[in-house]
Amino acid sequence: MNGQGDDLPIIAIKGVSKRYPNDVVALENISFSLEKGEFCFLTGPSGSGKSTLLRLLYCAERPTSGDIFIDGVNVKTIKQTYIPILRRRIGVVFQDFKLLQDRTVFENVALALEVIGFNRDQIALRVNKVLENLGLGGKGKRYPQELSGGEQQRVAIARAIVNRPPIILADEPTGNLDPQRTMEVLDIMDELNARGTTILFATHDERLFEGTMRRVVRLQDGRLEVEYS
Ligand SMILES: Nc1ncnc2c1ncn2[C@@H]1O[C@H](COP(=O)(O)OP(=O)(O)OP(=O)(O)O)[C@@H](O)[C@H]1O
Ligand SMILES: [Mg+2]
């Protein structure tokens, strides 16, 4: 996709600012990069700009100034029609799961493959495998409201990873989960990362990365405050 070699960072954020139409400056001159295969926590208090930064990365918002490169491609200059193709390279997981309530677990996960043209047999194979891997085998026919919060989040992760994107962006994915389910989600992310997926995990909960060797990027009032590994 990039044709520019493998040594480029998979995500590069350069001097990015975001001012919302109401004049709130959510991000101010942010710069950092993620190498392929990195697992990085994005932290900072409520309102510091974590969700905004992720929204810029999956092109739900555009930066007011600065540049964002995904796989060496500047998202500012790409055509609108290219955004869905870029988004296929990025799996997104949210705090509130965002599952379709009138679709089964299987259908929620399958949708991600239907839109990119997989046939029914391929879809069944892939979806059942990912559900199995995430401990959801046998739950395919259930509806989201028939599952626990932890199970719903695993369905949302299944949906995000079923097309095997090289990047996962997670926005407070454990915010609605108890400590046990939180650990399960962290373990899943660790495993995905061990298989080469680049992960940017936003959370205000310092306990999730205390004592780990993971890289941590911290925002404060829209500025990159400290960064440590
Ligand atoms: N759509 C929007 N329009 C206007 N202002 C917004 C919008 N979304 C967020 N903001 C503002 O931008 C700032 C950053 O918000 P953001 O949601 O990125 O923070 P956050 O770090 O994700 O917070 P939280 O931990 O509560 O999720 C806040 O001041 C917020 O009020
Ligand atoms: Mg947020």
Element layout with pairings:
Elements: E1 11-19, E2 25-34, E3 39-43, H1 50-57, E4 65-70, E5 73-74, H2 83-87, E6 90-94, H3 105-114, H4 120-133, H5 149-161, E7 167-171, H6 179-194, E8 198-202, E9 215-220, E10 223-228
Parallel strand pairs: 3-8, 3-9, 6-7, 7-8
Antiparallel strand pairs: 1-2, 1-4, 4-5, 9-10
Helix pairs in contact: 3-4, 3-5, 5-6
The protein binds adenosine-5'-triphosphate and magnesium ion (MG).
Give me the number of helical elements: 6
Coarse morphology: globular
Give the proportion of residues in helices. Answer: 25-40%
Structural class: alpha/beta
- The residue ranges in which pLDDT falls below 50 over 5 or more consecutive positions are none
Strand order of the largest sheet: 6-7-8-3-9-10
> Percent of residues in beta strands?
25-35%
Give the beta-strand count.
10
Largest sheet: 6 strands, mixed
Which cofactor or ligand species appear?
adenosine-5'-triphosphate, magnesium ion
Membrane topology: Peripheral membrane protein
Family: Belongs to the ABC transporter superfamily.
Protein name: Cell division ATP-binding protein FtsE
Function: Part of the ABC transporter FtsEX involved in cellular division. Important for assembly or stability of the septal ring.
